[in-house]
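I am still getting used to backbone structure tokens and would like to learn alongside you. To get us started, please write out a protein record for me. Start from the sequence, derive the backbone structure tokens from it, and show both lines together. Once you have written the record down, we can walk along the chain together:
***
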Amino acid sequence: MMNISSGSSIGCFDFASDHLDRINCTLNFQLDYYIRNLKTGICILKSFDLYIRKCRKRRSNQFMRLECDKEENGDAKSDSFRLNSISFRIQDLVRGITHGLDSAFFRHIQSSASNHSDIRSELARLEDNMWLFFDSDIKEFDIISLFLYYSLGDLQLVVDFIDSISENLRHLYGRYYKFDEDLKIVMRTLLEKLMFLKSFIRFVTLQVVEGEHLKDLLVHVEVVAVNAASLICRSWFQRDDKQMCNEIKTEISQLIHKKIDPVDPQVREIYIHVLTASKLSRSSYTLAMEENKHQLAEFIDYLLLSLMELLESYTSFLVPVKDQMLKLHEGVRVLIILLSRVQEKFNELNDEMKDLIGVVVSDAGIVIFSLSVNEMKEGLQKETDLALSHLLEVLKLIIAELVCIYPLPSSSLSFPKTNELGSLDFLLESLKELASSTTDSIAFPNNSICTILEDLVFLRAFLGNIVEQRNQNGKLQTLWSRVMKVAYSVELEIDSALLRDKQEGCLNAFAGDIKLTKIEAEEIYDSIRYDGETLKVTKTTIHMPSQIVAPIFNEALVGLNDQVESIIDRLMRGSSQLDVVAVVGMPGLGKTTLAKNVCSDPSIKFHFHICAWCAVSQVYSKNNLLLQILCVIDSRSSDQYHKMNEDDLAAKLYQQLKGKRYVIVLDDVWDIEGWNLLKHSLPDDCIGSRVLLTSRFHNLSLEIKLDSKPLHLRPLTDKESLELLQKKLFAKEDCPPTLSEVVLHIAKCCKGLPLAVVLVAGILDTIQQDCWEEVARRLSSTIFVENEHCMKTLEYSYNYLPDYLKPCLLYLGAFQEGRDIPVRRLLRLWISEGFVRKIEGKSLEDVGDDYLMDLIGRSLVMPTHRRSLGGIQVCRIHDLVHEFCVEKAKEENFLQILYGDDLLTFTRPYNLHRLSIFHATSWELIKSRLFFPNLRCLLFPDSKYGRPLDGSSLKFLLSKLLRVLDLGEMVSRYFPREVLFLVHLRCLRIQWEIGKIPSAIANLSRLETLAIGGPVIFNLLLPNAIWNIKTLKHLVVFPNYGTGGFEFPMDNLEGSPDLEHLETLSLAIDPSFQSQSLQKILSKLPSIRRLTCVNGNHNWDSEYGASAEYHDAILMLDYLSRLESLKMGRFAGYEFVFPLNLRKLTLLNSRQPWSKISAIGKLPNLKVLKLYYDSFVGEKWEMEEGEFQNLRCLKFSSLDIRWWTASCDNFCCLEKLVLEKCLCLEEVPSCLGETLTLDMIEVKWCHESAINSVKQIQQEQMDMGNEDLKIVIII
């Protein structure tokens, strides 16, 4: 064994660690867990040794200075001996590790044992020795007290010690504390606080603070660091003692609260004194700051974090204090951006300004450390108020200077301009609810509420009457703005009051403003009336469009057939090497539509083994691009792909494509980088594979291949534009002669852009024909260039929308460009936001569906996939429409879109209403230090797949006023506790890995949608408190593969209130354990419309082979009078009695004999039947006469059926048949050839004879004149 001298103490730690790594590798990492634990202990002891050695050196220097004092001399000698003894013991302990392990390893080799028990025991013994050393030797010598007593404030010692402790904390935090969320939080906080202290020391050193002020700070920080090191050591070595861990958590929290945060007067005094001293010494400061501005920025960042911790109680602050705090946050954050994130701008400042920044940072620290939450609730002390006011003036001066080199947006308060009347309606509903409430949780006088409600009802009616006139009349416009401003202010005040203690009289000022505004409205009304103008009364009822049958997005091309043929020719002919075929052209020309038509051509499908689509767009990632392609190639493995990293995905794509002739479509490529990310995963086997690329940029294809000859998509001719417009307006009918001239004129105004034609058709389709000439006049009055033409047309389409549809359209900008949008998720968001108005006799979801169909009818939204029961399942918007929505939403302060890279430099007013964030990491969210106290909606619509989310990263973005929180694909380790305080939430979509749903979920008493997901969804036990959320409408898990759901608590079920409004539920239940539980639970859900129900028995698969007679049980569901859609999974051997009104039924793993299907066939309203794996068993299904009379869609998947017989009357209404992985099925009933309603047959991975029978049916249908029957066959 190598002998290491005491002079190389650091070497002994590194040697022992390396030795452990070598043993770990030799044992093939079979004892990795134990070895890592021992290495962690070594790292902790290394921190103590570092500190002790420096203390020895310091004591030695002190000893030289104390020779004249014999008593103190003796104490110093004694202390030095104690320190030497501890240091040598630590080093001997670490050196003994290599010797002990070598001996154990030698014994293991001699014994030829395979279980490594000797080595494992030695590892455990060595770790026990470490703890015994700390628990006995260090305690015996009272080394911690010695450290604290002799703290002398050595600068380098303190900084090095904090670095060593922090390194241990990061290691423990990332690896070992992740399973204890509370310990993880407190350790993460301790790490942040230690980094704050280090940055504080660096800042005051940069400010040339010396003498007693610096020493006081260093001694204080040293004391904190020693205590922190001791607590970390105890938490590690006693990690299995739950009670001790809880005690340590408390001690760490107390250390932070009493010794680090400026709560204790003594600590605050130390901080303020050293910052005051930092303002006095300015020698050579400017040069020092230029060279170390990152240290300055780091300290400011921690100051801002301290301020944000105070802002957690923002809703309880007095109004004047709120304004001051927001200005302080804004000013301090601008300084950080200037110093650390746009550093090149800093050099443009003059020396005086740089010097002023240093002073203002010290002042900011003094003010922030002087503030307290109670003070901000009750009013600032005069001294603090004056200091804060002065600081804000100086910050204002600095920001004004910065504007010329770093433009900043206005921070004036403004409210969303979209959906103003809808927002006012939303407020009126809240006021009515408040006025009728019997609770005393808010001490608003009821007469104040009623007065405000009465006056706002009048003003709402008045605004409804002046919608058409307000833009032409200055008085009306000013009044409109005043009403909306005071309405938003009232809403903020009421919602904030729910979060704080009772405050009486806080609505009086608003009541007075509203009363004055009402009087002004009456005077304006009278003046207009007496001046001879008549206010046109605008009805507030909603005129819904007639039922629109939306074609699934697959636009027929007009006039471009020659270009389609040219592209097909270039894809199928030419070089055998991999080649890129590019289609370029300005936005709106139809590049994507052209590519879709090419890919759907039968010759392409026959020629290429693989045809995959990938939407690239402006913002993309390698992970996302690879996933898109792989999930198209092999959709059955999509779950597996989502768990793989980028390198594995790239290798998998290469493997999937190798040896196959493929065509990959890269749609809407903006730069060469997208191609560079993918090209190494596209093998060239010289068999004619192709990449079809669409782009706005001509030079892009030349960057990929110098001799490339891109196809330039031409605009439509006037004749072709007219043809397309007529198809959109009149379908197969002729244009009426009286309209031919105006239609031709409008077609010419579209400048040959297919998108413009489609958008204009959407406008014309919603107005009277005698108004078409006005549309033509407006279109021809503006000169357009390139995509500005489409943008102007979009603006025109937007202006023609009724007000209630405008927010619905702009909201689509929150989703990622070029991606599909799940309609149900979209509708629930619309409803939670209050966009969807109540219509008597219709559910809000049905009204929302009508809204969507209206937008589709106006060609602003494209449906991409239809539901089995009709309606749209998935939709999307054109890239230009998305671009318009993003810009318009930003302009009207309706919605802000941010990407991860933008977060750090984003500066905006603090009154953002809605925020959608893409591709953000936890680090970016934390370091952004963004704060939006009035935020109502926070979306992460399409974050990087499965990206882990640290709950703390959302802490300051989770405004207490949020109504909508959709975390998309971001996954938290645990349920973020911060969410439980968002009492205004109506929609929550969240994923986490470990832990139950907390009982405090009942705090969210307004919650309507709770959607919970995770990497793997099994059964989620709901707390008893769930029955108290009476507003719940949708309780779902995602992704829903029929493998998991919510378990309801069964205790005190009879005494729990009904969930009267619940419409959608993912339910998990164990019918064998809880005999009548299903009926008991469902009887408390009288409004249920969509139900997914799975067997929650964890051992259900052990009973899987059971027959129907095994359970001798029937699950009665016939009492669910409103149930429309039902999915049942894993109820092997159970029979069902279904409700007669059922329209859609999906079965999985029910193992019923085919003879039992007759009961389903007699359901009079059943339109969709989907039978998945082992839902029915047996080789033969003989359909009986009169069954399935109204069935529209039938799907088989993974069934063992061999023979299927039927008669003509069984399929009299069938429109779609899907057969998937039915490997034994020999043929499809020939009578399908006589079904006149049949539109599509899909056959995937089935027997060849079944495929041949489908082809024969197709021929019979063609013989009958049905040439529109679509057959999709995948082998």
